Amino acid sequence: MTDTTFATLLKRGVAEIITEAQLLGLLDSGRILNLKQGFDPSAPDIHLGHVVGLRKLRQFQELGHKVTLIVGDWTARIGDPSGQSATRPMLSPNEIQTNARTYMEQFFKVVDKDKTELRWQSEWFSQFTLDEVIKLTSKFTIAQLLAREDFNKRYNSGNPVSLAEMLYPLLQGYDSVAIKADVEFGGIDQKFNCLVGRELQQSTGQPPQQVFLVPLLIGTDGKQKMSKSLHNHIGIAEPPQEIYGKVMSIPDSLILDYFQLVTDVPEEEMAEFKKQLKTRSVNPMNLKRRLAHEIVSQFHSKQAADEAQEHFTRVFQKREIPKEIHTTVELRATGDLRANAEVWRDITSLLSDAGLVKSRSEARRLLAQGAIEVNGEKVSTDKVILKDGSIIKVGKRGFLKMVDSAKRKWETANS
Predict the structure, then answer these.
(1) What whole-number distance in Å separates Cα of residue 398 and Cα of residue 41?
(2) Angle at 328 (CA atoms; ends 327, 331), nearest 5 degrees
(3) Do 67 and 141 sit in the same domain of this protein?
(4) Which domain holds residue 44?
(5) With contact defined as beta carbons under 8 Å apart, do 145 and 166 qualify?
């Protein structure tokens, strides 16, 4: 490897490698390495937090190595306990299958499908006997499993830790044995699970896998790791305007992390960004515009990124109404069609039915925060007067247009 390739592959966006010297030996051996990436289809979508590790897989593939993607159709039934303060509900087989299909479609937006082998845990675990389960559990003690930080915290605080959850790292670790993994990839919060795989391989006579851990990307709230459950995520399958707007909303303190972890912007350029931010010689908004454009281009296209940027400038910086509002709601079905009807509507149910909020209670919360506008004016009550063409704005990016199609059809017929 060249020094540049080495720096990109093993230094940029890397939290820890166990062990780097052995991994370098494997890379220098000239053989095609088997790179393990497992996922539990407990949710259907991939966000930028997942992309940090997926980009590393792609870089290894570009050097000729192969990814084995393991669908955790058994571990998903338990749910990964990493970082969890409570036991997760088990998923049904149908939920797992549905989530897996969507996940894989998005996975191959980043990772090369032609250099990836797909495996399902059920290939080996559906054949497991009770005897084999006992043999697997005998490899580790309760003390070893309770050394895991999240288990230890829950146990010491009196919160339950199920035996099924304790099986999770063993099952994930056995995947490495089943596919004879050379390297396992994961977030830094997966360190315990990955090391279990390394130990299980050694106990069965296999060479221990190397462990490649990437940092956790902080979400748009600027506080916790990116997660759908925390509503601080940026999904890679979201519309370009949504991705762009969310990237623009991240705190300035995360700009360099995002550039480093989810873009290909050269190190020299990022060093200049760092210098500019430190000396305050650049408006952070300009760097975020560049960052948002890079990310939208990566998952959609340059044209989509250009259009998202233009939309953001017009709607959020110049405070103009979007050229196109895809969400429209009928104003009325009957009445005096000659009149420009003004209709009282319950805005909480209106927004909930249109899908701009998850519930009427969320709409009421937004009302209380002054985050809902009708035709540019903030509203604070749930009953509002609307007419044909009224524009409702929800938060920073949600728009709803009222359409009196009955009146418009009447005008066309009588024109």
Answers:
(1) 29
(2) 155
(3) yes
(4) 3-217
(5) yes
Q: Which CATH number fits the domain that encloses residue 403?
A: 3.10.290.10
Identify the residue with better confidence: 1 or 92: 92
Mean confidence (pLDDT) of the chain: 84
244 and 284, same domain (yes or no): yes
Total tally of structural domains belonging to the chain:
3
Give 338-392 as a 3 state SS string. CCCCEEEEEHHHHHHHHCCCCCHHHHHHHHHCCCEEECCEECCCCEEEEECCCEE
Among 79-88, 100-109, 362-371, whose mean pLDDT is lowest?
79-88
Q: How confident is the model at residue 86 (pLDDT cuts 50, 70, 90)?
A: very low
Q: What is the pLDDT of residues 190-213, one digit of tens each?
A: 898 899 999 999 999 999 999 999
Question: What's residue 85's pLDDT?
Answer: 46
The pair of three-digit structure tokens given for residue 196, joined into one six-digit string:
């279990």
Q: 48 and 226 in contact (C-beta within 8 Å)?
A: yes
| pTM for the predicted model, two decimal places | 0.74
Identify whether 322 is part of a domain.
no
208 lies in some domain: yes
**Residue 408's Cα: distance from chain center in Å?**
42
Residues 186 and 108 in one domain: yes
